[in-house]
Amino acid sequence: MPSIVYRGVGPRIAYERRIAGLTQAELARAAEVSLGAIRKIERGERGVSDAVLEAIADALDIDPARLLPHTERPDDRVHQAMPGLSSVLATYEAPEDGPCRGLPELSQAVSAAVELRLNAQYSRIARTVPDLLAELCRALSTAPPADQPAVAGLLVDACRAADAVAFKRGAKDLSARLLDLMRWAGAQANDPVVDATVAYVRTELHFSSSTYTAGVRAIEQALDRAPRTDSAKALAARGALHMRAAVLAGRAFNSTAADIHLDDARILGDRVPEGVYQGTAFGPDSVRAHEVSVAVSLGDDHLGHALTLAREWKPPAALPAERRSGFYIELGRAQLWSGRPDAAFESLKVARRIAPQHAREHRWVREDVATLRRLKRADAESLSNFAAWCHASTS
Known about the structure:
The chain is an all-alpha fold. The protein folds into four domains: 5-67, 434 Repressor (Amino-terminal Domain) (Orthogonal Bundle); 76-171, no CATH class; 191-313, Serine Threonine Protein Phosphatase 5, Tetratricopeptide repeat (Alpha Horseshoe), CATH 1.25.40; 325-395, no CATH class.
């Protein structure tokens, strides 16, 4: 099918780029489009194919329809995905008939979804993951017994990608149902590393309900069941659980438990190279990023420790974009609470450049930008534009 070429979108792209606080070069990098093409598009010297339009829209974290002339109300791609996800969740134990790709093709599709999640490309996930989940449910119901554990593991990873969209966009009921599907699939994977991953992700329920102490207990129970082998996957699974427990303990203001779990995470992190294991980044750099997160959660006297860590270390580009963006969001909060609003705003802008969709959907970004607006009402346009971009309250 030939690609549609849209005309007259250049001024809209330039406007949305400025609202997002991006230079033409930064937009080009984020959209994986040449800088020369961006310049020509914005000047109206060339049209935009549907593929390029979507790439630019994803980089700006907006629906492509918003870039088209004479469009008053763009469709929200993520909300459009919700009915499809609900349909899968209603039928996963008895899925409808349909085509299924082979295990290698399904594995490749799920790997692509995991990569999108790690880089906070939520709108792209929303476009593809409902059909992928439905296909995986069909595959699991028809696969030969020897292949069922592998398909179940892929279903867990795809559920996690879908849940990233639902959880970040505040669809808590849908997120909880996806976690139930993940647990159901995980039980069929027959893999203790997968079980540990499911336990890691399910603690979202404790973050969303602020039951942090109960979350620490749940993680500690999962650690008791976690594999004790010296494989990199097993070490990383345990280390990730310790990182998550440390953050939960920090939210519960339990510094003793947070320190214990961070120490255990460091020990395990030193035994594996930094990388992505079963869909979770783990290694020395990931542990360092979590140190800042824990210090910010504990607040008060611990904020100085977070700022010191951030002066000594910055997340390397090899870390997934979502994790690097999260580091700067946490740092921005520490700076704001320490009386450094200008530095806080700079950190939030870095978080946005790294992963726009992650920063835009993060509750702390909205809260902190709203606070910055109240503290600096005379500051102008860049802060006002940022507040409008992330829908921060200005009251």
